[in-house]
Amino acid sequence: MSSSYIDNGCWCCPYFRNRCSNFTVKGDSDVDPVLLVSGIGGSILHSKRKKLGFETRVWVRVLLADLEFKKKLWSLYNPSTGYTEPLDNQTEIVVPQDDYGLYAIDILDPSLWVKLIRFEEVYHFHDMINMLLGCGYKKGTTLFGYGYDFRQSNRIETGMDGLKEKLETAYKASGGRKVNIISHSMGGLLVTCFMSLQQDVFSKYVNKWICIACPFQGAPGCINDSLLTGLQFVEGCESYFFVSRWTMHQLLVECPSIYEMLPNPDFNWKQQPQIKVWCKKADKEENSSVKLEIYGPSESITLFEEALKHNELNYDGKTFALPFNFSILKWAAGTRQILNSARLPDGVRFYNIYGTSFDTPFDVCYGSETTPIENLSEICHSMPQYSYVDGDETVPAESAKADGFQATERVGVTARHRQLLRHKTVFKLIQTWLGVGQKVGKHSKTSRVVDDFAIGHA
Predict the structure, then answer these.
(1) Distances from the Cα of 437 to the Cα of 2, 352, 443, angstroms
(2) Where are the alpha helices (DSSP H) in 209-277?
(3) What is the DSSP string of 432-450?
(4) 73 and 251 in contact (C-beta within 8 Å)?
(5) φ/ψ (deg, to 5) at 279
(6) pLDDT for 299-333, tens place per residue?
(7) What is the pTM of this model?
(8) Cβ atoms of 360 and 394 closer than 8 Å
(9) Quick one: which of 169, 317, 327, 392 could link to 417 by a disulfide (CB 3.0–4.6 Å)?
(10) Which amino acids are annotated catalytic?
(11) Closest by alpha carbon to 105, among 86, 89, 138, 129?
């Protein structure tokens, strides 16, 4: 195993189809098939009418995003099945399977006007797909995608069955060649669960696994705050056209996948992640004081319970209680055991790319010494203050590097979380590890990556 760090500028190129710079383009029969696996929020989701079969895209969409999200994607967890189910019982959430699974993970809002302005935030695997096509891969023969309902648990049966089916399809379509998986973000946790639960199947079908920006030990700052105040997928002026932070919160609090990315309490963090709350306290004589309360990974459960105990959702004239969900927490604890026990099968090569050099939320604080929180339920309608560690702005590098596997290579790349999917250094690493390019000399444009490998192996 070796580890290296690469600092190389970000580059987005939408036109890889006709060439793969400095690499030999092979025919599709000469390459092992590749399966791209998305992360949380990285798949198009459709709402499908059960009787009529009519489908509407509810994620991602830019126009009418918040309205459609509330109507068709707000859900409740069903502890008897383990699934998160839409409040609209006349519909079900499905992932479109067009283009061999690639459509759902390519441009997440494929509407014409989004393409015209090239709204980068929804161009997900698009550039990577084009890069691979330019390197000789062929859709449906050696290139496939796996999008899934990311609300659900990373070990839920439909997710595991879907991944198995994709691996089988890619294996057969390529003439019995083993599959190379490229996963992003939470997709790495889904692959880890599959590898742990179905190791024989994984060994049979998988050759290499390239994992990008996976929160192996959790994403403390982002996930802790997601359960308390929500999540904003798009920042800046574009956020006004997107799903609001609180609308997203009311879904995430019922999503097992979110609970499964809470910081791993059994991991040996350099410093334990914390939630801090400036609280206003009153004694028996009604004299008030301000105190900083600190919650570690285990103690934070008490905070979640208190902060969310009055949380509720109004839908179609009805009110639904949405407290912190202990049934989901119990399920997520089982998932964490599966993740912790996962082992890389013999013969499978594992590569880890993680983002670095960006401030990444770790500890989160609510209130201040001058404006303290009087009731913990107020946290849900406050704005967080973060303390930061190194990472990709979403996943700390410490968590992303801690895969626990015998990696062939681990490489840090200076890029943000979603930016890693279109970063030129990541593309060069992938091309090298997949073996789709010719060997390059010292003075070629890719010599820096090769030289860094040599340093990493030393």
Answers:
(1) 21, 20, 16
(2) 220-228, 245-252, 256-259
(3) HHHT-S----TTSTTHHHH
(4) yes
(5) -110, 145
(6) 999 999 999 999 999 999 999 999 999 999 999 99
(7) 0.90
(8) yes
(9) 392
(10) 185, 392, 417
(11) 129
- The residues with which 394 forms a beta bridge, in sequence order, are none
DSSP output for 363-379: EEEES-SSS-BSSGGGG
Q: In which element (H, E) is residue 458 found?
A: none
Cα angle value 312/249/311 (rounded, 5°): 20
Query: Tokens 């791209």 — which residue?
Result: 36
Count the residues in the chain.
458
CA dist 352 and 331 (Å) reads 27
* Runs of H (alpha helix) within 341-438: 397-401, 424-434
Residue 409 gets which letter from DSSP?
A: E
205 close to 59: Cβ distance less than 8 angstroms: no
Tokens standing for residue 271: 């410093």
Pairing of strands 34-37, 55-59: unpaired
CA distances from 324 to 66, 304, 451 (A): 23, 6, 50
Which tokens sit at 144?
């496939």
3-state secondary structure of 57: strand
State the Cα–Cα distance between residues 33 and 138, nearest whole angstrom. 9
